[in-house]
Amino acid sequence: MDIRHLQYFIEVARFQSFTKAAEHLFISQPTISKMIKNLEEDLGVELFERTKRKVVLTDAGRLILAQAKTIDKAFQNLQTQLDDLLGLQKGHIRIGLPPIMDADQFIKILGGFHDQYPHITFQLVEDGAKKIETNILSEDLDVGITVLPTQEDRFDYFFLSNEDLEVVLPPSHRLADRKQIRLEELADENFILFNKDFVLNDKIRSSCHEVGFTPKVISESSQWDFIGKMIAANFGISMLPKSVASLLKEEVKRVHVINPTIAWDLAIIWPKEHYISYATKEWLTYTQNRLTVGAEDQL
After folding, report:
1. Contacts of 127 (CB under 8 A, 6+ apart)
2. Global confidence as pTM
3. What's the gap between Cα 41 and its chain centre?
4. Of 140, 157, 198, 276, whose CB is crowded by the most CB atoms within 10 A?
5. CA R_g for the chain
């Protein structure tokens, strides 16, 4: 039994005639008779009492007709919703965003996509890159922004942006007037970092270890503006992506760090082994095209 059996049954009941139902459906009368016979065999009941003048529903036929109409309506609604999805008239995309990024470029891309597909909605979830990757794999998010390198065996990705980290210092700091600072010169400083949910925490710690010291971390936070306030209040120093450091409203000094220069590369990721919705696929294509055009314009 498939949906056509039920649809043909509904039409025969409506017209009380195999012939009229067949004409309405543009099929032959023997075809529809065979379909109804197959349905009766599948259900193990007779659906119609057949007379020379018309066919009449049996008690079982009346019971099944009500359910058949419900099933047919649900199928039609499903088809409509699928058509909407395929035509991108509907959709919902859950995106994970790290707070350690300049959101201006991303918001412009999101706005352009919304103009083109106004019925697709978004849920934006701020979290650290580690949590974003975990939530994508658990299917709580569709896509997200993370820090490269990522787990290439589990995620597909394309490049979003890159910049360097800067040292952010109180204005009175002994190194505040320098144009650049060697990382090893920060060995005795008090560090204020993003918490361990953020890849930035790992990146700073590992970079410090590479040049021979373990950073003395006196505080961790999940908010870049709070970190800025603590630096301005002379609690310690931090290291932030250049674009984020530029957003700090407090009076602080920003200095380029060298030996090593610490890169901050962001990418948009999605899972390799999971289903990707039509809306999400279209957004990924749109975003990648916008980024490509933007990169070409800068050449």
Report:
1. 96, 97, 98, 135, 197
2. 0.69
3. 47
4. 198
5. 31
pLDDT value for 10: 92
- The answer to whether domain 91-160+265-298 has CATH 3.40.190.10 is yes
Least confident of 156-165, 225-234, 242-251: 242-251
CATH class, 3-86 region: mainly alpha
Domain ranges within the chain, ordered by starting residue: 3-86, 91-160+265-298, 163-264
Residue whose entry in the numeric block shows the structure tokens 């984020």: 244
In residues, how long is the chain? 299
Return the structure tokens found at 143: 């896509």
Residue 116 token pair: 């083109």
The angle at the Cα of 71, spanning 67 to 77, to the nearest 5 degrees, equals: 145
Whether 155 and 269 have beta carbons less than 8 Å apart is answered as yes
163-264 and 91-160+265-298 share a CATH fold: yes
